[in-house]
């Protein structure tokens, strides 16, 4: 949690607080009702606004795919020398290196001001994209868009995780991540409607896509600070008793496994944690498919014989399918308190889809379209599962802040791969794109399997007392171990 002048410096016996607020609550109907009301209040305050943030970020990132088939490529000469792929790539030049610093800055800021500020800036940049006349100017705006979107996803994950226990979080995270699917579906629907404005005030349809969607983002950003939560100790929407209960529930979930101080020892523990890198590879591998389909799906569908308008419309059922599947998988994952098996199911779906499209010449249009459902489903549905798998196995605020940012940074590399894997001169077969996508899916599956083996093995060692020697460490070290604390148990 962020350091707060009023709260975090006080010497509160947090474990005793947890026992009073949580354990006693389980034996009295009044306390159970109070906790239930608190969870409902948290959900209403956090999920809608963060869903909107993530939806708009995704919409403003992928609308380039919709604009491409509405005349943008021809007017800006992006159909020469794979310039469209370069434009996709440039988004990640600043996006990747700034995700971790952004979460570090966020820890010392008010989320209700910091995240809407980023959102307003990228909304204005999206609007400006509708007025460019050269591909060089377009390139520059793509770099700036990545600069301001860099802090959004890790920030959303970090802020929201400070309010929920581990096995309450997955289904909430899925509600935010279905914004990906809804962004794709509504993006296609908006593009279909906005394209009809082509010619108004001398602007082609692709320009209106950027102008209108950017204006919506900037407008909502100006309203967001009035309704968005801050860190639990700062949030004006909760009274003192509610803030104590939020804090106690998290302490009860993680016990002594804290990491509130970032020093040389804690930084070493973060950077040498193999689970962070395996979790990042898991996220990166499958996210490559989700991002690539977002960038190129309208183009791929147009290659299957549909017109530009028909291709925009045919993206909608694919994203509607991924939306429903994401919610079902995430709720089932929380109910079973298991992540790994669902990640492997996503890998299997995407593998089958890519396998079909690698034999695209022998398939009819209906089968090709069905394969797109499988690839998008596997790639997009895996996002909240992969993040939940790693987040559940990180304890301590600094560990979670840096670890989640490192994992989301891996999605930046996925975006780079996804932006260059579909080459224009390979249309409509796209052998490089489909084979690369399948390879990245397998990377994800192998990494998830290695992480599952690692956490299973570590739990067995701790159950035998193999890490109990750490209990003799000085108190200030013991209380800053995070998930290296012997009492922490990992989850599959």
From TrEMBL:
Gene3D superfamilies: MFS general substrate transporter like domains. The keyword Membrane applies. The keyword Repressor does not apply. It is a multi-pass membrane protein. Keywords: Membrane, Transmembrane, Transmembrane helix, Transport. The chain crosses the membrane at residues 45-64, 84-106, 113-133, 139-161, 173-194, 206-229, 276-296, 316-333, 340-360, 366-390, 402-423, 429-456. GO terms for molecular function: transmembrane transporter activity. InterPro entries: MFS (IPR011701), MFS_trans_sf (IPR036259). Pfam families: MFS_1. One of its GO terms (cellular component) is membrane. It is found in: Membrane. This is Major facilitator superfamily (MFS) profile domain-containing protein. It comes from Talaromyces rugulosus (Penicillium rugulosum).
């Amino acid at each position: 949690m962020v350091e707060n002048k009023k709260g975090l410096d006080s010497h509160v016996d947090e474990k005793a607080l947890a026992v009073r607020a949580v354990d006693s609550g389980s034996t009295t109907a009044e306390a159970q009702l109070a906790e239930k009301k608190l969870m409902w209040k948290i959900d209403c305050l956090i999920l809608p606004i963060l869903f909107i943030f993530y939806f708009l970020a995704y919409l403003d990132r992928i609308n380039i795919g919709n604009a491409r088939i509405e005349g943008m490529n021809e007017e800006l000469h992006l159909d020469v020398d794979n310039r469209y792929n370069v434009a996709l790539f440039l988004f990640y030049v600043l996006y990747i290196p700034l995700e971790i610093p952004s979460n570090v800055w966020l820890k010392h800021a008010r989320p209700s001001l910091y995240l809407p500020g980023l959102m307003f800036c990228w909304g204005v940049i999206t609007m400006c994209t509708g007025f460019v006349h050269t591909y060089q100017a377009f390139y520059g705006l793509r770099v700036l868009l990545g600069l301001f979107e860099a802090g959004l996803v890790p920030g959303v994950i970090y802020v929201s995780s400070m309010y929920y226990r581990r096995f309450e979080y997955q289904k909430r995270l899925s509600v935010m991540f279905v914004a990906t699917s809804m962004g794709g579906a509504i993006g296609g629907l908006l593009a279909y409607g906005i394209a009809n404005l082509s010619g108004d005030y001398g602007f082609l349809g692709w320009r209106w896509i950027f102008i209108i969607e950017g204006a919506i983002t900037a407008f909502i950003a100006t309203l967001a600070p009035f309704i968005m939560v801050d860190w639990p100790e700062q949030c004006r929407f909760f009274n003192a008793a509610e803030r104590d209960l939020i804090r106690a529930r998290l302490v009860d979930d993680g016990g002594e496994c804290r990491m509130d101080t970032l020093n040389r020892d804690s930084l070493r523990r973060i950077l040498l944690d193999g689970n962070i890198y395996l979790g990042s590879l898991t996220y990166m591998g499958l996210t490559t498919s989700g991002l690539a389909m977002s960038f190129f799906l309208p183009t791929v569908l147009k290659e299957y014989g549909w017109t530009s308008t028909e291709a925009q419309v045919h993206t909608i059922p694919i994203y509607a399918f991924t939306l429903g599947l994401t919610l079902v998988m995430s709720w089932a994952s929380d109910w079973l308190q298991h992540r790994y098996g669902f990640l492997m199911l996503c890998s299997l779906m995407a593998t089958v889809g890519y396998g079909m499209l690698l034999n695209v010449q022998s398939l009819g249009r209906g089968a090709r379209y069905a394969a797109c459902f499988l690839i998008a489903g596997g790639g997009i549905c895996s996002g909240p599962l992969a993040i939940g798998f790693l987040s559940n196995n990180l304890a301590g605020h600094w560990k979670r802040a840096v670890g989640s940012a490192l994992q989301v940074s891996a999605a930046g590399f996925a975006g780079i791969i996804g932006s260059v894997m579909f080459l224009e001169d390979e249309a409509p077969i796209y052998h490089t794109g489909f084979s690369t996508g399948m390879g990245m899916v397998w990377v994800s599956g192998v990494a998830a399997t290695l992480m599952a083996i690692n956490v299973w093995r570590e739990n067995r060692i701790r159950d035998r007392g193999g890490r109990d020697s750490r209990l003799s460490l000085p108190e200030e070290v013991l209380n800053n171990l995070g998930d290296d604390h012997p009492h922490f148990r990992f989850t599959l």
